[in-house]
Amino acid sequence: MTQVAFIGGGNMAASIIGGLVQQGEYSAQQIHVSDPNDSQRQQLSEQFGVHTYADNQQAIEQADVVMLAVKPQVMQQVLAPLFATLSERQPLIISIAAGIDMPSLAQWTGCKAIVRCMPNTPSLVNYGSSGLFASDDTNMHQRNLADSLMRAVGITVWVQQEQEIDTVIAVSGSGPAYYFLMMEAMIETATKMGMSLETATQLTLQTAAGAAEMAKRSDVDPAELRRRVTSPGGTTQQAIATFESAHLRDIVAAAMQAAQQRAAEMSLELGAQSEQ
């Protein structure tokens, strides 16, 4: 049976573990988690019945897959003591840390089969979107393993070039915050119009969820859905015209380009090439 080790047992790792156990694709006995926090290890053990360790080395000793779920700023420090074991055993490495590129992961782990993955925060409620990119040495079986792990918390899409991960970050990685900001603005404006905070929040969140579900189920694109609900001379047309006159599309484009650029900068700051 495939043995999966998680280095780091924080919120994202816990969500993936929960999804795997709930779906029954992996048993708790196949999952090994290391984390320096005693209470986090205890919670994972009690909630899911998985193996937990304070020592990263113990977690990876029998692993076929090692998921790196630590902050990018400490990635090299965490991997340094594990290099000998990883380079000898050659497990599949899956990194969910933003800003750590393939060359850095290869150099720090000594492994050939590596998948970079960018999940997003809705993964915490099993509604996530994950973009993945695999190294040339990752075989189809290993790609399928990575895919099955991330599908435990949502949908997966594969990109063909590593730099596309930066675009994934700009779209789905940072994307939830764009929608949260829109919700925040709508709720704030509704309360200024005299609506109670509770009612404004309830209507805004349900509208966002309903619009997303309509778009997912529809056989037409979002632009057509917008046109269908925008009656000439009506309230929606007036609101949309206001957005357009304020150049909303340009604002969105600038924001996404800024996120993409920052992702590229992080790779330079955090990766192995920053040491040169």
Automatic annotation (TrEMBL):
Domain of life: Bacteria
List of residues binding NADP(+): 7-12, 69-72
GO BP: any one term: L-proline biosynthetic process
EC identifiers of the protein: 1.5.1.2
Top-level class of the enzyme under EC nomenclature: oxidoreductase
UniProt-listed Pfam families: F420_oxidored, P5CR_dimer
Residues engaged in binding NADPH: 56
Protein name per its UniProtKB record: Pyrroline-5-carboxylate reductase
Species whose genome carries this gene: Bacterioplanes sanyensis
Highest classification ranks of the organism: Bacteria, Pseudomonadati, Pseudomonadota, Gammaproteobacteria, Oceanospirillales
